[in-house]
Amino acid sequence: MTDAYERLTASLASADPEIERLIDDEGRRQSEKIRLIASENYVSQSVLEATGSILTNKYSEGYAGKRYYEGQQYIDEIEELAIARAKDLFGADHANVQPYSGSPANLAVYMALANPGDTIMGMGLPMGGHLTHGWKVSATGKWFNAVHYGVEKETGRIDMNEVAELAKEHRPKIIFCGGTAIPRTVDFPAFAEIARETGSVLIADIAHIAGLVAGGAHPSPFGHAEVVTTTTHKTLRGPRGAMIMCDDDHAKAIDKAVFPGLQGGPHNHTTAAIAVALREAAHESFGDYAHQIVKNAKALAQALKTRGYDLVSGGTDNHLILIDLTNKGIGGKPAAKALDQAGIELNFNTVPFDQRKPFDPSGLRIGTAAVTTRGMVEKDMELVADWINRTVEACKSDKADEYPVIAGEIKDFVAKYPIPGWPTS
User: Fold this and answer.
1) Which of 40, 222, 360, 416 has an alpha carbon 20 to 30 Å from 205's alpha carbon atom?
2) What is the assigned CATH class of domain 292-414?
3) pLDDT (tens digit per residue) in 171-218
4) SS3 state of residue 148
5) 130 labeled binding residue
6) At what angle do helices 3-15 and 17-32 cross, to 10 degrees?
Protein backbone atom coordinates (compact mmCIF):
# COMPACT_ATOMS: atom_id res chain seq x y z
CA MET A 1 0.00 0.00 0.00
CA THR A 2 1.19 3.53 -0.70
CA ASP A 3 1.47 6.01 2.16
CA ALA A 4 -1.07 8.29 0.47
CA TYR A 5 -3.62 5.50 0.14
CA GLU A 6 -3.12 4.42 3.75
CA ARG A 7 -3.66 8.00 4.95
CA LEU A 8 -6.79 8.27 2.87
CA THR A 9 -8.42 5.10 4.20
CA ALA A 10 -7.01 4.64 7.71
CA SER A 11 -9.80 6.50 9.51
CA LEU A 12 -12.54 5.28 7.17
CA ALA A 13 -11.61 1.65 7.74
CA SER A 14 -12.42 1.90 11.42
CA ALA A 15 -15.32 4.36 11.14
CA ASP A 16 -17.22 2.63 8.35
CA PRO A 17 -15.63 -0.66 7.26
CA GLU A 18 -18.48 -1.44 4.85
CA ILE A 19 -17.92 1.72 2.80
CA GLU A 20 -14.15 1.33 3.04
CA ARG A 21 -14.44 -2.20 1.71
CA LEU A 22 -16.61 -1.08 -1.20
CA ILE A 23 -14.18 1.72 -2.08
CA ASP A 24 -11.35 -0.78 -1.92
CA ASP A 25 -13.26 -3.16 -4.19
CA GLU A 26 -13.96 -0.36 -6.64
CA GLY A 27 -10.32 0.70 -6.69
CA ARG A 28 -9.24 -2.86 -7.39
CA ARG A 29 -11.84 -3.14 -10.15
CA GLN A 30 -10.62 0.09 -11.78
CA SER A 31 -7.03 -1.09 -11.53
CA GLU A 32 -7.57 -4.57 -12.96
CA LYS A 33 -9.79 -3.72 -15.94
CA ILE A 34 -9.29 -1.88 -19.21
CA ARG A 35 -11.41 1.25 -19.03
CA LEU A 36 -12.79 2.28 -22.43
CA ILE A 37 -15.79 4.32 -21.28
CA ALA A 38 -15.51 7.52 -23.31
CA SER A 39 -16.69 9.77 -20.47
CA GLU A 40 -14.30 8.38 -17.82
CA ASN A 41 -10.66 8.86 -16.92
CA TYR A 42 -8.23 8.66 -14.00
CA VAL A 43 -7.39 11.86 -12.12
CA SER A 44 -3.99 12.52 -10.60
CA GLN A 45 -3.13 12.00 -6.96
CA SER A 46 -3.11 15.81 -6.59
CA VAL A 47 -6.66 16.14 -7.93
CA LEU A 48 -7.77 13.33 -5.60
CA GLU A 49 -6.25 15.09 -2.61
CA ALA A 50 -7.89 18.42 -3.44
CA THR A 51 -11.25 16.69 -3.96
CA GLY A 52 -11.00 14.99 -0.56
CA SER A 53 -9.82 18.09 1.30
CA ILE A 54 -11.34 20.07 4.18
CA LEU A 55 -12.70 22.54 1.65
CA THR A 56 -15.84 20.42 1.64
CA ASN A 57 -16.57 21.96 5.10
CA LYS A 58 -17.11 25.46 3.73
CA TYR A 59 -20.31 26.95 2.32
CA SER A 60 -19.84 29.84 -0.12
CA GLU A 61 -23.00 31.14 -1.77
CA GLY A 62 -22.23 33.91 -4.22
CA TYR A 63 -19.04 34.85 -6.05
CA ALA A 64 -15.59 35.98 -4.97
CA GLY A 65 -15.89 39.27 -3.09
CA LYS A 66 -19.71 38.98 -3.05
CA ARG A 67 -20.50 36.10 -0.71
CA TYR A 68 -23.43 35.61 1.64
CA TYR A 69 -21.29 33.91 4.31
CA GLU A 70 -18.20 35.15 6.10
CA GLY A 71 -14.82 33.43 6.25
CA GLN A 72 -14.30 33.34 2.48
CA GLN A 73 -10.79 34.81 2.26
CA TYR A 74 -9.13 31.65 0.99
CA ILE A 75 -12.14 30.26 -0.83
CA ASP A 76 -12.22 33.43 -2.92
CA GLU A 77 -8.57 32.98 -3.82
CA ILE A 78 -9.14 29.36 -4.83
CA GLU A 79 -12.09 30.21 -7.07
CA GLU A 80 -10.29 33.17 -8.62
CA LEU A 81 -7.30 30.95 -9.33
CA ALA A 82 -9.48 28.34 -11.03
CA ILE A 83 -11.14 31.05 -13.13
CA ALA A 84 -7.82 32.58 -14.17
CA ARG A 85 -6.42 29.20 -15.15
CA ALA A 86 -9.50 28.34 -17.21
CA LYS A 87 -9.35 31.64 -19.06
CA ASP A 88 -5.62 31.27 -19.74
CA LEU A 89 -5.83 27.64 -20.83
CA PHE A 90 -8.73 28.06 -23.25
CA GLY A 91 -8.37 31.70 -24.22
CA ALA A 92 -11.77 32.68 -22.83
CA ASP A 93 -12.95 36.14 -21.82
CA HIS A 94 -14.91 34.83 -18.84
CA ALA A 95 -15.23 31.56 -16.91
CA ASN A 96 -17.67 30.30 -14.31
CA VAL A 97 -16.34 27.25 -12.43
CA GLN A 98 -19.31 26.70 -10.11
CA PRO A 99 -21.68 24.39 -12.08
CA TYR A 100 -22.08 21.05 -10.30
CA SER A 101 -21.93 19.05 -13.53
CA GLY A 102 -22.44 19.28 -17.27
CA SER A 103 -26.24 19.11 -17.33
CA PRO A 104 -26.71 21.99 -14.83
CA ALA A 105 -24.15 23.96 -16.82
CA ASN A 106 -26.25 23.56 -19.96
CA LEU A 107 -29.41 24.39 -18.04
CA ALA A 108 -27.77 27.61 -16.87
CA VAL A 109 -27.11 28.54 -20.49
CA TYR A 110 -30.78 28.10 -21.32
CA MET A 111 -31.78 30.17 -18.30
CA ALA A 112 -29.39 32.93 -19.31
CA LEU A 113 -30.22 33.09 -23.01
CA ALA A 114 -33.73 31.71 -23.63
CA ASN A 115 -37.27 31.64 -22.28
CA PRO A 116 -39.63 28.65 -22.03
CA GLY A 117 -41.21 28.03 -25.41
CA ASP A 118 -38.33 29.48 -27.40
CA THR A 119 -36.98 27.49 -30.32
CA ILE A 120 -33.61 25.83 -29.76
CA MET A 121 -31.57 23.53 -31.94
CA GLY A 122 -29.15 20.71 -31.18
CA MET A 123 -28.00 17.33 -32.40
CA GLY A 124 -30.52 14.53 -31.95
CA LEU A 125 -29.69 12.12 -29.13
CA PRO A 126 -29.78 9.00 -31.37
CA MET A 127 -27.40 10.74 -33.75
CA GLY A 128 -24.80 11.50 -31.08
CA GLY A 129 -26.18 14.55 -29.27
CA HIS A 130 -26.88 15.01 -25.57
CA LEU A 131 -30.10 14.84 -23.54
CA THR A 132 -29.76 18.50 -22.59
CA HIS A 133 -29.65 19.61 -26.22
CA GLY A 134 -33.45 19.52 -26.30
CA TRP A 135 -34.20 15.80 -26.35
CA LYS A 136 -37.82 15.02 -25.53
CA VAL A 137 -37.26 13.12 -22.25
CA SER A 138 -35.13 15.98 -20.87
CA ALA A 139 -36.48 19.12 -19.23
CA THR A 140 -34.89 20.98 -22.13
CA GLY A 141 -37.12 19.10 -24.56
CA LYS A 142 -40.21 19.79 -22.46
CA TRP A 143 -39.59 23.49 -21.83
CA PHE A 144 -38.39 24.52 -25.28
CA ASN A 145 -39.42 23.99 -28.89
CA ALA A 146 -36.51 21.75 -29.87
CA VAL A 147 -35.36 21.17 -33.45
CA HIS A 148 -32.76 18.49 -34.11
CA TYR A 149 -30.20 17.85 -36.82
CA GLY A 150 -28.40 14.58 -37.49
CA VAL A 151 -25.75 12.93 -39.59
CA GLU A 152 -25.54 11.88 -43.22
CA LYS A 153 -26.55 8.25 -43.61
CA GLU A 154 -23.77 7.52 -46.09
CA THR A 155 -20.90 9.10 -44.13
CA GLY A 156 -22.02 9.13 -40.49
CA ARG A 157 -20.82 12.75 -40.25
CA ILE A 158 -22.81 15.80 -39.16
CA ASP A 159 -25.02 16.94 -42.02
CA MET A 160 -24.09 20.63 -42.18
CA ASN A 161 -26.54 21.21 -45.04
CA GLU A 162 -29.34 20.01 -42.78
CA VAL A 163 -28.05 22.22 -39.96
CA ALA A 164 -28.15 25.26 -42.25
CA GLU A 165 -31.60 24.46 -43.66
CA LEU A 166 -33.19 23.85 -40.24
CA ALA A 167 -31.61 26.96 -38.77
CA LYS A 168 -32.87 29.15 -41.62
CA GLU A 169 -36.35 27.64 -41.35
CA HIS A 170 -36.76 27.79 -37.58
CA ARG A 171 -34.46 30.69 -36.54
CA PRO A 172 -33.57 29.12 -33.16
CA LYS A 173 -32.66 31.31 -30.21
CA ILE A 174 -29.62 29.14 -29.56
CA ILE A 175 -27.78 26.41 -31.44
CA PHE A 176 -25.85 23.68 -29.64
CA CYS A 177 -22.94 21.94 -31.35
CA GLY A 178 -21.09 19.02 -29.81
CA GLY A 179 -22.43 15.87 -28.20
CA THR A 180 -21.71 12.55 -26.54
CA ALA A 181 -21.06 10.18 -29.44
CA ILE A 182 -19.39 12.19 -32.19
CA PRO A 183 -16.23 10.49 -33.45
CA ARG A 184 -15.29 13.26 -35.88
CA THR A 185 -14.02 16.84 -35.64
CA VAL A 186 -16.73 19.41 -34.95
CA ASP A 187 -16.63 22.19 -37.56
CA PHE A 188 -16.98 25.19 -35.24
CA PRO A 189 -16.43 27.83 -37.97
CA ALA A 190 -19.24 26.34 -40.09
CA PHE A 191 -21.62 26.31 -37.13
CA ALA A 192 -20.65 29.90 -36.30
CA GLU A 193 -21.43 31.06 -39.83
CA ILE A 194 -24.87 29.44 -39.69
CA ALA A 195 -25.57 31.00 -36.29
CA ARG A 196 -24.59 34.45 -37.58
CA GLU A 197 -26.88 34.10 -40.60
CA THR A 198 -29.87 33.13 -38.43
CA GLY A 199 -29.25 35.47 -35.48
CA SER A 200 -28.72 32.53 -33.12
CA VAL A 201 -26.31 32.27 -30.20
CA LEU A 202 -23.87 29.41 -30.74
CA ILE A 203 -23.16 27.16 -27.76
CA ALA A 204 -20.30 24.66 -28.04
CA ASP A 205 -20.63 21.73 -25.66
CA ILE A 206 -17.08 20.35 -25.49
CA ALA A 207 -17.58 18.08 -22.48
CA HIS A 208 -15.99 15.15 -24.27
CA ILE A 209 -13.21 16.94 -26.11
CA ALA A 210 -12.16 19.68 -23.64
CA GLY A 211 -8.88 17.94 -22.89
CA LEU A 212 -8.17 17.54 -26.59
CA VAL A 213 -8.88 21.23 -27.16
CA ALA A 214 -6.66 22.21 -24.22
CA GLY A 215 -3.88 19.96 -25.49
CA GLY A 216 -4.09 21.15 -29.08
CA ALA A 217 -5.42 17.85 -30.43
CA HIS A 218 -8.78 19.25 -31.57
CA PRO A 219 -9.70 22.68 -33.03
CA SER A 220 -10.94 25.18 -30.46
CA PRO A 221 -14.46 26.63 -30.40
CA PHE A 222 -13.21 29.89 -28.87
CA GLY A 223 -13.55 32.75 -31.30
CA HIS A 224 -16.47 30.93 -32.95
CA ALA A 225 -18.97 30.11 -30.17
CA GLU A 226 -20.15 32.85 -27.84
CA VAL A 227 -20.62 30.35 -25.01
CA VAL A 228 -18.71 27.10 -24.31
CA THR A 229 -19.77 24.50 -21.74
CA THR A 230 -17.75 21.56 -20.53
CA THR A 231 -17.47 19.01 -17.82
CA THR A 232 -14.10 18.92 -16.08
CA HIS A 233 -13.53 15.16 -16.07
CA LYS A 234 -13.46 13.06 -19.27
CA THR A 235 -10.47 14.05 -21.43
CA LEU A 236 -9.70 17.13 -19.28
CA ARG A 237 -8.83 14.72 -16.45
CA GLY A 238 -10.24 16.73 -13.56
CA PRO A 239 -12.90 16.11 -10.89
CA ARG A 240 -16.60 15.62 -11.53
CA GLY A 241 -17.59 19.22 -12.14
CA ALA A 242 -18.25 21.67 -14.98
CA MET A 243 -17.43 25.11 -16.34
CA ILE A 244 -19.12 27.67 -18.54
CA MET A 245 -16.86 29.97 -20.53
CA CYS A 246 -18.09 32.83 -22.67
CA ASP A 247 -17.40 36.21 -24.20
CA ASP A 248 -17.75 39.37 -22.12
CA ASP A 249 -21.19 40.15 -23.57
CA HIS A 250 -22.75 37.05 -21.99
CA ALA A 251 -20.77 36.90 -18.73
CA LYS A 252 -23.27 38.67 -16.47
CA ALA A 253 -26.25 36.64 -17.67
CA ILE A 254 -24.35 33.36 -17.32
CA ASP A 255 -23.23 34.13 -13.76
CA LYS A 256 -26.74 35.13 -12.69
CA ALA A 257 -28.15 31.94 -14.19
CA VAL A 258 -25.73 29.71 -12.26
CA PHE A 259 -26.24 31.61 -9.00
CA PRO A 260 -28.84 32.45 -7.85
CA GLY A 261 -30.70 31.03 -10.84
CA LEU A 262 -30.02 27.32 -10.45
CA GLN A 263 -27.61 26.64 -7.61
CA GLY A 264 -26.73 27.54 -4.05
CA GLY A 265 -23.21 27.29 -2.74
CA PRO A 266 -20.50 25.88 -4.99
CA HIS A 267 -18.59 22.73 -4.03
CA ASN A 268 -15.31 24.30 -2.95
CA HIS A 269 -13.36 21.04 -2.85
CA THR A 270 -14.34 20.49 -6.49
CA THR A 271 -13.37 24.04 -7.42
CA ALA A 272 -9.91 23.47 -5.94
CA ALA A 273 -9.56 20.18 -7.79
CA ILE A 274 -10.59 21.90 -11.04
CA ALA A 275 -7.86 24.47 -10.44
CA VAL A 276 -5.31 21.68 -9.95
CA ALA A 277 -6.44 19.90 -13.12
CA LEU A 278 -6.25 23.13 -15.13
CA ARG A 279 -2.71 23.70 -13.91
CA GLU A 280 -1.81 20.17 -15.02
CA ALA A 281 -3.46 20.77 -18.40
CA ALA A 282 -1.29 23.84 -18.95
CA HIS A 283 1.86 21.71 -18.75
CA GLU A 284 3.61 20.69 -21.98
CA SER A 285 3.19 16.99 -21.15
CA PHE A 286 -0.58 17.39 -21.27
CA GLY A 287 -0.34 18.17 -24.96
CA ASP A 288 1.58 14.93 -25.48
CA TYR A 289 -1.17 13.08 -23.59
CA ALA A 290 -3.95 14.72 -25.66
CA HIS A 291 -2.32 13.82 -28.97
CA GLN A 292 -1.63 10.28 -27.74
CA ILE A 293 -5.34 9.87 -27.00
CA VAL A 294 -6.08 10.51 -30.67
CA LYS A 295 -3.25 8.25 -31.85
CA ASN A 296 -4.56 5.45 -29.65
CA ALA A 297 -8.13 5.94 -30.87
CA LYS A 298 -7.03 5.81 -34.51
CA ALA A 299 -4.92 2.70 -33.86
CA LEU A 300 -7.77 0.96 -32.04
CA ALA A 301 -10.24 1.93 -34.77
CA GLN A 302 -8.00 0.46 -37.45
CA ALA A 303 -7.46 -2.74 -35.46
CA LEU A 304 -11.21 -3.15 -35.06
CA LYS A 305 -11.86 -2.51 -38.75
CA THR A 306 -9.28 -5.16 -39.61
CA ARG A 307 -11.36 -7.59 -37.55
CA GLY A 308 -14.50 -6.74 -39.51
CA TYR A 309 -16.13 -4.19 -37.21
CA ASP A 310 -18.30 -1.49 -38.75
CA LEU A 311 -17.40 1.94 -37.34
CA VAL A 312 -19.79 4.88 -37.57
CA SER A 313 -18.22 7.43 -39.96
CA GLY A 314 -15.54 4.84 -40.75
CA GLY A 315 -13.19 5.83 -37.95
CA THR A 316 -12.35 8.68 -35.59
CA ASP A 317 -10.66 12.07 -35.35
CA ASN A 318 -10.73 12.27 -31.57
CA HIS A 319 -10.93 9.98 -28.52
CA LEU A 320 -14.19 8.29 -29.41
CA ILE A 321 -15.12 5.26 -31.51
CA LEU A 322 -18.71 4.22 -32.19
CA ILE A 323 -19.16 0.62 -33.32
CA ASP A 324 -22.25 -0.65 -35.13
CA LEU A 325 -22.50 -4.38 -34.34
CA THR A 326 -25.30 -5.08 -36.81
CA ASN A 327 -23.00 -6.95 -39.19
CA LYS A 328 -21.75 -9.06 -36.27
CA GLY A 329 -25.22 -10.37 -35.49
CA ILE A 330 -25.22 -9.25 -31.86
CA GLY A 331 -26.71 -6.33 -29.94
CA GLY A 332 -24.67 -3.75 -28.09
CA LYS A 333 -26.08 -4.60 -24.67
CA PRO A 334 -25.17 -8.31 -24.51
CA ALA A 335 -21.76 -7.47 -25.97
CA ALA A 336 -21.13 -4.77 -23.36
CA LYS A 337 -22.21 -7.10 -20.53
CA ALA A 338 -19.90 -9.84 -21.79
CA LEU A 339 -16.97 -7.43 -22.18
CA ASP A 340 -17.43 -6.24 -18.59
CA GLN A 341 -17.11 -9.82 -17.39
CA ALA A 342 -14.01 -10.20 -19.55
CA GLY A 343 -12.31 -7.17 -18.01
CA ILE A 344 -13.18 -4.44 -20.52
CA GLU A 345 -15.47 -1.54 -19.55
CA LEU A 346 -17.40 0.34 -22.22
CA ASN A 347 -21.05 1.13 -22.82
CA PHE A 348 -23.74 -0.01 -25.20
CA ASN A 349 -24.95 2.89 -27.32
CA THR A 350 -27.39 3.77 -30.06
CA VAL A 351 -25.95 4.34 -33.51
CA PRO A 352 -27.40 6.70 -36.14
CA PHE A 353 -30.55 5.29 -37.75
CA ASP A 354 -30.55 2.43 -35.24
CA GLN A 355 -33.30 -0.14 -35.78
CA ARG A 356 -33.07 -1.42 -32.20
CA LYS A 357 -34.49 0.12 -29.02
CA PRO A 358 -32.41 2.66 -27.02
CA PHE A 359 -31.96 0.31 -24.04
CA ASP A 360 -31.02 -2.55 -26.35
CA PRO A 361 -29.20 -0.76 -29.17
CA SER A 362 -26.89 -1.88 -31.94
CA GLY A 363 -23.74 -0.10 -30.87
CA LEU A 364 -20.81 0.15 -28.52
CA ARG A 365 -19.13 3.43 -27.55
CA ILE A 366 -15.41 3.42 -26.85
CA GLY A 367 -12.99 6.10 -25.65
CA THR A 368 -9.22 6.03 -25.24
CA ALA A 369 -8.59 8.76 -22.63
CA ALA A 370 -8.31 6.46 -19.61
CA VAL A 371 -6.01 3.89 -21.22
CA THR A 372 -3.83 6.75 -22.43
CA THR A 373 -3.59 8.16 -18.91
CA ARG A 374 -2.35 4.73 -17.81
CA GLY A 375 0.45 4.94 -20.36
CA MET A 376 -0.78 2.67 -23.12
CA VAL A 377 0.25 3.47 -26.70
CA GLU A 378 -0.66 2.41 -30.24
CA LYS A 379 0.87 -1.06 -30.10
CA ASP A 380 -1.25 -1.89 -27.06
CA MET A 381 -4.43 -1.12 -29.00
CA GLU A 382 -3.88 -4.22 -31.13
CA LEU A 383 -4.13 -6.34 -27.97
CA VAL A 384 -7.22 -4.44 -26.83
CA ALA A 385 -8.94 -4.99 -30.18
CA ASP A 386 -8.12 -8.70 -30.02
CA TRP A 387 -9.61 -9.03 -26.53
CA ILE A 388 -12.74 -7.18 -27.66
CA ASN A 389 -13.12 -9.45 -30.67
CA ARG A 390 -12.53 -12.67 -28.71
CA THR A 391 -15.13 -11.62 -26.16
CA VAL A 392 -17.76 -10.68 -28.75
CA GLU A 393 -17.23 -13.98 -30.56
CA ALA A 394 -17.45 -15.88 -27.27
CA CYS A 395 -20.68 -14.09 -26.45
CA LYS A 396 -22.18 -14.98 -29.82
CA SER A 397 -21.22 -18.63 -29.27
CA ASP A 398 -22.46 -18.74 -25.66
CA LYS A 399 -18.95 -19.53 -24.44
CA ALA A 400 -19.03 -17.61 -21.17
CA ASP A 401 -16.16 -19.71 -19.84
CA GLU A 402 -13.89 -17.63 -22.09
CA TYR A 403 -14.61 -14.44 -20.13
CA PRO A 404 -12.53 -15.23 -17.02
CA VAL A 405 -9.66 -16.41 -19.23
CA ILE A 406 -9.59 -13.08 -21.04
CA ALA A 407 -10.06 -11.19 -17.76
CA GLY A 408 -7.01 -12.95 -16.35
CA GLU A 409 -4.91 -11.99 -19.36
CA ILE A 410 -6.04 -8.38 -19.01
CA LYS A 411 -5.31 -8.31 -15.29
CA ASP A 412 -1.75 -9.45 -15.95
CA PHE A 413 -1.36 -6.94 -18.79
CA VAL A 414 -2.61 -3.83 -16.93
CA ALA A 415 -0.45 -4.57 -13.87
CA LYS A 416 2.39 -2.68 -15.56
CA TYR A 417 0.14 0.37 -16.02
CA PRO A 418 -0.77 1.52 -12.48
CA ILE A 419 -3.55 4.04 -11.93
CA PRO A 420 -3.04 7.23 -9.89
CA GLY A 421 -4.10 7.09 -6.26
CA TRP A 422 -4.10 3.31 -6.00
CA PRO A 423 -1.44 1.04 -4.48
CA THR A 424 0.66 -0.93 -6.93
CA SER A 425 0.62 -4.04 -4.74
Assistant:
1) 360
2) alpha beta
3) 999 999 999 999 999 999 999 999 999 999 999 999 999 999 999 999
4) strand
5) yes
6) 140
Residues carrying an active site annotation: 59, 61, 205, 231, 234, 240
Whether residue 129 is annotated as binding a ligand: the answer is yes
Residue type, 401: D
- CB contact at 8 A, 304 and 381: no
130: amino acid identity, one letter: H
- Every domain of the chain and the residues it spans: 54-281, 292-414
CA distance linking residue 302 with residue 298, whole number of Å: 6
Q: Sorting pLDDT into bands at 50, 70 and 90, what band is 1?
A: very low
Query: Does the N-terminal peptide bond of residue 260 adopt cis geometry, omega within 30 degrees of 0?
Result: yes
Q: Output the pTM of the full model.
A: 0.96
SS3 call for 357: coil
| Eight-state DSSP code of residue 115 | -
pLDDT band at 4 (very low <50, low <70, confident <90, very high): low
Four-way CATH pick for 54-281: 3.20.20.60, 3.40.640.10, 3.40.50.2300, 4.10.1110.10: 3.40.640.10
Residues in contact with 6: Cβ distance below 8 Å, sequence separation at least 6, in sequence order: none
Inter-residue contact 257 to 112 (CB < 8 Å): yes
pLDDT tens profile 262-285 = 999 999 999 999 999 999 999 999
